[in-house]
Structure formats: C-alpha cells, structure tokens
Design a protein that fits this description.
115 residues, alpha+beta, 3-stranded antiparallel β-sheet, 3 helices
Length: 115
C-alpha cells in the first residue's frame, strides 16, 4: 500500500521557486513485520504518482524490489568478507596499485595510436 502526504506548512525557496516538501509513504506487508518508510519527492513527481493508481503500484513494487536487492547485496558482501584479514589500508593500497596499472595500460594504448 502506498500513501502520501504533504508535511504541514514546510516550503522551500530554491532559485526563486517555492516548492512544497512532498512525501510518499511506503508500506510493505510482505515481510514478517510491517516496514514503513517515507521518501521525499519533487512536487511534480508526487502529483503524477497520486493521480494514477497503477503508477502508485509500480512505484511501490520498484522501491520494494530495489530495497530488497540492496539489502541482499550488502549481506552478500558482508558474508564474502567476514573471514578477510585485509585492513582498510591494504585495500586502499591495492586500489591505488590497480588504478596505476589501468592508467599505464591506457597511456600505452594511446601512445601506440600516435606512433
């Protein structure tokens, strides 16, 4: 179920344009416990979603699937790295070495084009 509301009296002026803060409340009852989340949307998007019941259902499904996918990917990454002995410094060092090698390969390829 998707419901929406306007927060009471909150208005922002950005670049001379007054905008109301609109919220879309997302409720998911597919899980063991109800999860309720509010997201902020531009007023125009909020109006479009409110005007079309089918669009509300699509938005709800997309948000639910994206949240589930995101949480599962984080849990997967945590599981894959739980036994890792790498420190944050090791990862930063490896990242720098990889980027240097990528840059070297790109520069070599560019130099080959100009020879």
């Amino acid at each position: 179920m998707v419901t929406s509301s306007t927060t009471g009296g909150e208005r922002k002026e950005i670049n001379g344009l007054r905008k109301s803060k609109k919220e879309l409340k997302i409720c998911s009852r597919r899980f063991i416990k109800d999860i309720k989340q509010t997201i902020e949307l531009p007023e125009e998007i909020h109006a479009l979603i409110e005007s079309d019941p089918f669009l509300k259902l699509v938005v709800e499904r997309i948000i639910r699937e994206d949240v589930v996918s995101y949480v599962l990917s984080i849990l997967t990454m945590d599981k894959l790295t739980e036994d890792s002995k790498l420190t944050e410094e090791d990862i930063i060092r490896m990242d720098e070495e990889i980027k240097k090698e990528i840059r070297r390969r790109i520069e070599d390829e560019i130099n080959r084009w100009y020879q």
